[in-house]
Every structure is written in structure tokens, then in C-alpha cells.
């Protein structure tokens, strides 16, 4: 359950005072614009923590070639949906076609010779060795024709499964070599969420665990299919894979958030997005501190809703100024009283 932060009001204050019959030497401050203040509530949303993830298909292929040839024609463009077996790219095959014709001619010649030897053998006019030799020649010629036909088939790059062309890496006229990627194909059907988790975040998770997630404004459910231990030498995080149960048909590559249960303290504080102050690469909020606005830089967690989780920089109960506008660090303020708080 997302925290509901209770607004307070800030009103302008006049700082001119008299002390012991003498006027305070400090100049009067201008009236401050009325702003809202919210209390930072503690507790991760719905008893868990949001972890960033990427939505992708369970079937993704980088289409490559095993031959060195020139791209003759590209039949599919980026974003195009193709059926299984659909022709994607044609490579030049003129040399191979010429070799095939020569091989087929040679095969026809040895087959004719083999038939003559068979006829002579039936008349006892040839030896068994001659028949065996012609049979071997026929088999060799047939193997050569089969190999050339297979190589020609490799010049016609086809979709291994139905899907969408995610990216095209070559153009007509390009020369490509064995293993060079030509297209990236993303399959239709099942989708999965992929995230990186620390050891603490992955604790208690296992294959089969069902998790809630959000992506592009849609809420859904996914089931853990794989959880690799931390292998990254720098972050020491592992990979989580979860098959999307519902909804289907979400956009490939979309940003998503997985709700991992039972993670107190990882993203236990949250602030409204409207309170965030962005200065270059730094992100922070203004706090109400002893009658002044204090700018505090924060370490933020993931999130794309009205509230953002805070990893470090805030304590429970600190007063965060909502919609700070042109507020300056150290500017005098006054927090009004008599405002109720709710969850």
C-alpha cells in the first residue's frame, strides 16, 4: 500500500523583531509563498520493495549467417511482424548456383556410367570391383550436390519463429561474413521480466514464486522461473527471470517494476514525486528545519508512479516540502499547525 503523505501548509513570516527595546539589525524577510509540506511515511509499498526490471520475450534471436556473401535483398524492416519461416534476407548465390549445375551434371554422368556397369555386371561382363567403384562415385557426387543445395539454402535467411523484427543491422549491398549479426528477432507469445537482485533482495525467492509487477501503467503478475546467484564482480548481484502470467502483449523492452516481498529497510521511505528537486545529476528535497528550508540530496530508488522510494538521505518523520517551486536553501519559513495526518 503506497504511503499517503499528509500535507501541511507553509505561510510567509515576517522576521523583524524587537529585542530589549532595540530593533533587530537583520532586515525584514519578504513574505514567503504558501507551499505544502508532507511527512515522509515509513514502510515499503504493500509490504515489499520495488525492483527495476526489463520486459522481454522468452524467445529472442540474433539472426546471423554462416557464409561470406553480399546482401542481395532485405525482405523485412524494423517493427515488421513476420511468420515462422518467412524470408528475411537474401544473400547472393550466383557462384553457388553455378557450382550446383556443374555438380548435378557430374552426378548425372556417374549415374549413367553406374547403370552401364550394372548392365554389364548382369551379363558377367564387368567385375564386382568396377561396380563398387561406380557406386562410390555416385555416392560422392550425390553428397556434393546435397552440400551445395544446403549452402544455397543458407543464403535465404528465414525466421526461426514468428515474431517482430527488433532491429536490422545490414543493408542491401553489404558484405557479410560467418557469424555476423543481420537481424534481431523477438518472438511472439510468452514474455518475461529480467531484473538484477542483491543477495538480500533475493532472499526467500525461489522458482515458482508469484510476484506483482507494474509496466506502462498496467498491473500484472509474474512467476519466478530462474534465480541465478550473484555473479557480477562489482555489484555482486544475480539475475531474476519471471514469466509474465498476465497481462499479455506488453511492449517489448519496456521498463517494469517487480514488487519483491519482505524487504524492510531497502526502500522503506517514500516521497511524492512533486517534492523532488533536480539539479543536474543530483536529486533531493527541501526539508522544514527549525523555521528554515533545508536542501537535502538523496539516493533514490526505482519508481514511475506518484511516489518515489528513498534508499538513503532521509529519516522517518522528517518534513518534506511539497511543490517547493523557487524555494532556496536556508530560506525562512513557518509551518502552520492544526493539520491532521493520515495513512
Structural summary, described in words:
A six-stranded antiparallel β-barrel has the order 6-15-18-17-16-19. It is elongated, with a radius of gyration of 35 Å. Strand 16 and strand 17 (218-227) form a beta hairpin. It has helices spanning 94-122, 128-154, 199-202, and strands spanning 7-11, 18-19, 22-23, 35-39, 41-42, 48-57, 60-64, 69-74, 81-82, 87-91, 156-158, 163-168, 175-176, 181-187, 191-197, 210-215, 218-227, 238-246, 255-261, 269-272, 277-279, 282-289, 292-297, 299-300, 307-312, 319-322, 334-335. By secondary structure, the chain is an alpha+beta fold. It has three domains: 7-43 and 268-335, conserved putative lor/sdh protein from methanococcus maripaludis s2 fold (Beta Barrel); 51-58 and 189-261, Beta Barrel (Elongation Factor Tu (Ef-tu), domain 3); 61-185, OB fold (Dihydrolipoamide Acetyltransferase, E2P) (Beta Barrel). It is built from three helices and 27 strands. Helix 1 (94-122) runs antiparallel to helix 2.
Amino acid at each position: 500500500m503506497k504511503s499517503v503523505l499528509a500535507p501541511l501548509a507553509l505561510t510567509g513570516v515576517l522576521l523583524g523583531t524587537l529585542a530589549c527595546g532595540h530593533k533587530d539589525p537583520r532586515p525584514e524577510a519578504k513574505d514567503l509563498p504558501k507551499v505544502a509540506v508532507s511527512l515522509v511515511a515509513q514502510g515499503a509499498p504493500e509490504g515489499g520493495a520495488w525492483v527495476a526490471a526489463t520486459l522481454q520475450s522468452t524467445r529472442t534471436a540474433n539472426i546471423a549467417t554462416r557464409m561470406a556473401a553480399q546482401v542481395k535483398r532485405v525482405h523485412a524492416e524494423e517493427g515488421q511482424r513476420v511468420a515462422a519461416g518467412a524470408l528475411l534476407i537474401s544473400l547472393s548465390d550466383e557462384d553457388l548456383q553455378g557450382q550446383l549445375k556443374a555438380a548435378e551434371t557430374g552426378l548425372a554422368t556417374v549415374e549413367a556410367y553406374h547403370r552401364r556397369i550394372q548392365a554389364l555386371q548382369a551379363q558377367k561382363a564387368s567385375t564386382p570391383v568396377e561396380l563398387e567403384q561406380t557406386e562410390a562415385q555416385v555416392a560422392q557426387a550425390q553428397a556434393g550436390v546435397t552440400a551445395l543445395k544446403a549452402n544455397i539454402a543458407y543464403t535465404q535467411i528465414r525466421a526461426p519463429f514468428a515474431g517482430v523484427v527488433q532491429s536490422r543491422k545490414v543493408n542491401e549491398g553489404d558484405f557479410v561474413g560467418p557469424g555476423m549479426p543481420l537481424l534481431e528477432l523477438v518472438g511472439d507469445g510468452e514474455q518475461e521480466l529480467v531484473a538484477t537482485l542483491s543477495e538480500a533482495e533475493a532472499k526467500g525467492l525461489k522458482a515458482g514464486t508469484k510476484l506483482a509487477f507494474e509496466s506502462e501503467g498496467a498491473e500484472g503478475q509474474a512467476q519466478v522461473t530462474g534465480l541465478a546467484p550473484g555473479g557480477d564482480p562489482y555489484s555482486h548481484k544475480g539475475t531474476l527471470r519471471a514469466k509474465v502470467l498476465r497481462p499479455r502483449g506488453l511492449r517489448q523492452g519496456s521498463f517494469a517494476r517487480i514488487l519483491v516481498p519482505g524487504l524492510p529497510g531497502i526502500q522503506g521511505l517514500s516521497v511524492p514525486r512533486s517534492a523532488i528537486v533536480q539539479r543536474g545529476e543530483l536529486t533531493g528535497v527541501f526539508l522544514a528545519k527549525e523555521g528554515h528550508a533545508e536542501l537535502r540530496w538523496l539516493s533514490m530508488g526505482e519508481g514511475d508512479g506518484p511516489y518515489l522510494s528513498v534508499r538513503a538521505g532521509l529519516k522517518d518523520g522528517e518534513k518534506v516540502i511539497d511543490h517547493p517551486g523557487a524555494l532556496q536553501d536556508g530560506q525562512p519559513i513557518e509551518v502552520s499547525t492544526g493539520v491532521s495526518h493520515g495513512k
